[in-house]
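Blinded run. Sample ID left blank on purpose so nobody reads anything into the name before looking at the predicted structure. Input follows.
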Amino acid sequence: MNRCIRLILLTPAIGHTVAAGEPEIAIQPPENTAAPDFSMAASAGTLGLGGSIGYRFNPHFGIRLRGAALSYHRTETWGSEKTRIQLNGDNAGLMLDYYPFGGKLYFTAGLTLSESNMRYRAQFYRKPGGDYHIHMGGFNFQLVDNTRGEISGTCSWNKLQPYLGIGYTDLIWSDYPLYYSLDLGLNYMGSGKLRTATHGHFIHKDPATNQWSEVTPAQIEAALRREGRDFFKIANRLHFYPVVQFSIGLQF
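Blinded prediction complete.
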């Protein structure tokens, strides 16, 4: 009996008549257990609102292209003036994912291209024939000759930012190709670079000499740093940007 079974397995194409009482053997094709290769997802988090597309080469390696739009603004009072602060962080990145166990946990390394800047702007208006005094950071400025003045600046970081992180992904329902993922990591932004500019004619009264003189960029920056403490604290100390991004998508 054993010899007959081996013959059937080795030579299925020859044809064989199953004798009475002899077991019939059916050879089933192997099941396709490979994971889907492509993925597409929508995401939200500290990178902003965006999405990603991905391709998984094998159980251990995959690649993703992700992008997001990030913009935030608010108004603060610096001295006697209303100042608008805006954060711009639109970004796109290419990520390589490594699944050490061939499953749901992965480590990510990649490169992000990001706008990464913070801007501030304070505007002043003077009625014709009058004076406009600005009290900021212990300084008293005066706007003359123009009916409109502006103090503005930008703090910007590196546009190309390396990324390292960890993530986890799983199906939401086992019978459907809908999945979720969570990414935690850091973008290295480098050191912020601050630029300050003024528009309009500003003068300053020196308390020691009681004389009016042109306001210098150094005086403007000193006044801004005293008043906009939170803004400049971020500008001076922020070198890494935290990434917490949640995604929901489809595998196919």
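Unblinding after everyone has recorded impressions. Residues 1-16, 29-33 have pLDDT under 50 and may be disordered.
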